[in-house]
User: What shape does this take?
Amino acid sequence: MEVKLGFGAIPKPQYIFVSREADYCWYMLSEDRRQIPIYDKALTGVITAIEVEKRVETSFNATSKTDLYILADKPYIIRSGSDSYFSKSLLLALDILSFEQLSQPLTITVRPGEKKVVFCEIYNPVTYKSIGVIPI
Assistant: This one.
């Protein structure tokens, strides 16, 4: 990663939130807390950490979240509800990866389901194969 000299953004991770909306499945928040849609379906980077069942205070109440830390063009934290389909499918896919696979770039994807459901799938960005899928 190249270090940019001069003025720029504050060097802190960008939170990405998972939620099925009309035509996108993840978004970030602006400084005034408005949703900024991310229409891309995939994020490729190196997973650096994961926090499961993290207690977070929201404007409604305290809730459990899963935070996936991923280093891509900049650091991101993908946040989803701990009980969500996204978090469950993410954890199932990560569970079968070896340490060597986890230290290589991976592609995290979102796929909309029914109503508010979002599924996660992980791909090898070199082979374009889904992790965990057994070839026939």
In short: The first helix runs from residue 85 to 95.
